[in-house]
Amino acid sequence: MQTVSQLFNIQYPIVQGGMIWCSGWRLAAAVSNGGGLGLIGSGSMNPDLLLEHVRKCKTATNNPFGVNIPLLFGHAESFLQICVDEKVPVVFTSAGNPMKYTAHLKSHGIKVAHVVANTRGAVKCAEADVDAVVAEGFEAGGHNGKEETTTMVLIPTIRQAIDLPVIAAGGIATGRGMLAAMALGANGVQIGSRFVASNESSAHPLFKQRVAEASEGDTKLMMKKLVAVRLLRNPFAEKVEAMELEGASREALAELLGRGRAGKGMFEGDMEEGELEIGQASGIISEVKPAAEIIREIVAEYETARKELKELTP
Amino acid sequence: MQTVSQLFNIQYPIVQGGMIWCSGWRLAAAVSNGGGLGLIGSGSMNPDLLLEHVRKCKTATNNPFGVNIPLLFGHAESFLQICVDEKVPVVFTSAGNPMKYTAHLKSHGIKVAHVVANTRGAVKCAEADVDAVVAEGFEAGGHNGKEETTTMVLIPTIRQAIDLPVIAAGGIATGRGMLAAMALGANGVQIGSRFVASNESSAHPLFKQRVAEASEGDTKLMMKKLVAVRLLRNPFAEKVEAMELEGASREALAELLGRGRAGKGMFEGDMEEGELEIGQASGIISEVKPAAEIIREIVAEYETARKELKELTP
Prior knowledge:
The structure is a homodimer of 314-residue chains. With 314 residues, chain A is an alpha/beta fold. In chain A, 41% of the residues lie in helices and 15% in strands. In chain A, 59% of the residues are buried.
């Protein structure tokens, strides 16, 4: 099996998660220049904007980068076409069926990874012949699976179920977290929240600050009747929580959510009424810093922690 | 800082979780004889029964063992007295305030660990001067915390917050899981579900079989309005799930639960109407085997996986 570094032609098997509102060309290029794989998160873009970001990313880095495309979104087909036309080397697909576009993308020389939150999805990825699977645990930010399986359990079960590179996601923000994921059998990691709180992320400065200040217990997986999403505690999230305790219907939740709340919060900086998507790893993050420095720190901590792991039977 | 092995005077820093209905003297002694620390789970016992189990455990092993005592249970004070009178070397307390009894137990030479599910609880443990903290993540079976923090995130945050040995629990059933926990900064592990499916556990054979057969996604954290508990999917759990989707009250859930359901399921073998407490790690477990063999396999896999962890920058 190819390593994740070989597969994507990168220095470290560290992928920056493609996140709505937070990961445009600046972040993707900074991560790719830092030795990881940067992803442009297309979920909050229209086709013109994605095209602009892809082109800017190409001028900002000579290293491979990718685009994350949620397949259930209306613009998915246009996004895929842009990636083909612009010769984007890597596409991460999510929220949809990997059978639909994988062969098409691969026929254009694009490496394809698909994001799943359960073992069933991983098996489907293998059938679709993707190049790698992102296995995302319950602790991850943003949209999430119904099974609520955590990274600790998801990685070994998916590792056992398929014979493809597995990229662990959810709860990973440090070198120790990466080492734990590799110990569980992952071949690489996808890191989201840690890069939200980077200089180059397009998150609003107030949101970056909230992420850096967040403590353990400050996020919650909510709106499970609609689409499960992990949110940072704020007045909006508390409203959702109160409604859910009363058994609010899918329709009532959709009405409360309305449209555009994620952008309002994460991009425009409304910390009260915005939808603030972030992972549990926000509890481990305490400082906004450059993406390349984040990667250097993760790699250094990984190596130190690896050497510290002692024998059980000395 | 003492290692967990030094602290408890055991060969491997592997603790068998003290679980209601599943961990009597046979399992505790088998684990302690196998080089780990076996715990008698007192939560489903009365004082006479606990005394009997403690005495039988002492004759069945010459190695240290312990008793897990949920402090909020009615018999807690009698249980603590039994541990003092019988010179039980180790007590794990849970579900209550560690300030209350730690000094008393330590004055009798007993080593004390306390189980927490959040960082706040860990800091309280340090104030109470316990000997070690068990940090139990969202993926663990049975009763669980409100914060829903997973092992992947809980271990590093607690590691950073306190200067005491941290024993990781939740989602750990294999040597790779143990290695991941140690990579995150834990000093040892507490393993529950894996030992439920052991020859020596007092779980009903039908429950052991269900645990071995369970797949990823087969458990769920439920009854959060009452006391959050992770259950294996069965007709009873499905009833709870349906009621919770409708916003059922604490009272309605308590009425549905009634009394004695845990014993009915896990001990008497009613797989339909019993309350089947088990962790997400049940998805990784596929065979019932002797406790000592489980420990040998965990240690061997840990060592193999440790050696396989590669440098990121070769």
